[in-house]
Structure formats: structure tokens, C-alpha cells
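User: Could you go from structure to sequence for me? I need the amino acid at each position, not a summary. C-alpha cells:
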């Protein structure tokens, strides 16, 4: 009689701990990278450079970890679409 454990390969507790540690390290690096991009984007607003693009990229990275970043990114997308429709009306309303 086979049990569920016989089908799945059994991992040693040390390997599972290493995998969890690597996942945690990736998460921390993603967060640090996102906040670094966000800070650089804010600086680029005052200096020459693609500040808003960098901020959007940073929010995209941070949205994978934080709900607040996802909400800001979604709102910026909605407002960008609204602005685009105001400046460049769709073809069916232009006529």
C-alpha cells in the first residue's frame, strides 16, 4: 500500500531550511531593490532623468510584496488612462 509520502520525494529538514532562507533572502533583496529604485526616481524628478518611469518601475517591483504599492500603481494606471483619453480621445468619440 502506497502512502502520499511515498510518491513525493522526502526532503531533509536542512534542505527545507536552506530553501526557506533563500526565498526570504530573495524577498529582502526585492524589497531593498524596489525602495532603492523609488528613492532614485524621486531624486530624478528634481534632476535630469526619467524620474516617473523609475518610480513606476519601483512600484511594480514593490507591488509584488506590498498591497499599498499595488494600490498606488493601479491608481496611477487608471489616472494615466484617463489622461490619455482626455488628450487623445478614442476614434469613436473624435468624429
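Assistant: Here is the amino acid at each position, in order:
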Amino acid at each position: 500500500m502506497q502512502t502520499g509520502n511515498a510518491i513525493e520525494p522526502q526532503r531533509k529538514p536542512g534542505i527545507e531550511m536552506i530553501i526557506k532562507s533563500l526565498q526570504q533572502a530573495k524577498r529582502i533583496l526585492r524589497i531593498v531593490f524596489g525602495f532603492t529604485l523609488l528613492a532614485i526616481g524621486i531624486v530624478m524628478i528634481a534632476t535630469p532623468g526619467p524620474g516617473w518611469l523609475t518610480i513606476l518601475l519601483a512600484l511594480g517591483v514593490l507591488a509584488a510584496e506590498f498591497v499599498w504599492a499595488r494600490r498606488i500603481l493601479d491608481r496611477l494606471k487608471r489616472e494615466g488612462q484617463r489622461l490619455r483619453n482626455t488628450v487623445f480621445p478614442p476614434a469613436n468619440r473624435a468624429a
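One structural detail worth keeping in mind: The chain has one domain: 17-86.
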